[in-house]
Specification:
Elements: E1 6-8, H1 13-21, E2 27-28, H2 43-58, E3 66-76, E4 79-81, H3 87-97, E5 101-112, E6 117-129, H4 134-142, E7 163-167, H5 170-174, H6 178-187
Parallel strand pairs: 1-2, 1-3
Antiparallel strand pairs: 3-4, 3-5, 5-6, 6-7
Helix pairs in contact: 3-4
């Protein structure tokens, strides 16, 4: 079995960068899937469903490829948060999150066209947030970074300053779990080194 092209069904710069750091140069093909079509209250099931739908949206564009879809949300006190809609929502979210923790869920979906197989899994990482003043929250929101990220923070950006600790996979919080990626590729019969 030859190694198919690796397609990332996401416009996320952070996910692409993680793959590149791991030695995988993906073909980037954003799905533009309308996430509002999916209404699920359980965060793990939500991100798995969205990741799979994104990969499925892109799959018809290829004859032979390994397509990866991902989606992340942050759950705080049972409430699911994707990207904040505006600065005020980001500010309110940080007022609740600061000094507490949230669970970051990332769904990973692979559609392996040559083998006609689909594999979908979820990784969860607990994120502990620092106690912040209102001025610090306002300054962070003003950078615009929180508006681009599930959970209103980017671990690999300024938001990393406001994370006290993580329990679980570090790269999962950035956009995809490298250990889970390796395991899922193995489950499909590949080695991650096949894509170097």
């Amino acid at each position: 079995m030859g190694t198919p092209p690796f397609v990332l069904a996401s416009a996320s710069v952070a996910r692409r960068r993680l793959l590149q750091i791991a030695g995988i140069e993906p073909l980037v093909c954003p799905s533009d899937f309308d996430e509002s079509q999916v209404q699920i209250d359980e965060p793990g099931l939500l991100v798995k469903t969205l990741a799979q739908r994104k990969a499925e949206t892109v799959a018809p564009q290829f004859q032979s490829a390994l397509i990866m879809g991902c989606d992340s949300v942050l759950a705080v006190n049972g409430e699911i948060h994707g990207k904040p809609a505006n600065p005020e929502e980001a500010r309110q979210r940080w007022q609740k999150m600061q000094g507490h923790f949230g669970d970051l869920y990332t769904g990973h979906a692979f559609i392996d066209l040559p083998q006609n197989r689909t594999l979908v899994k979820c990784q969860v990482t607990r994120v502990y947030f620092a106690q912040l003043s209102s001025d610090t929250i306002d300054a962070y929101v003003a950078t615009g970074e929180p508006l681009k990220c599930a959970g209103a923070f980017a671990l690999e950006g300024r938001g990393g300053l406001f994370v006290e600790k993580l329990e679980g996979c570090h790269s999962n919080v950035i956009g995809l779990s490298l250990p889970l990626l390796r395991q899922m590729l193995a489950d499909l019969g590949y080695s991650v080194t096949d894509f170097w």
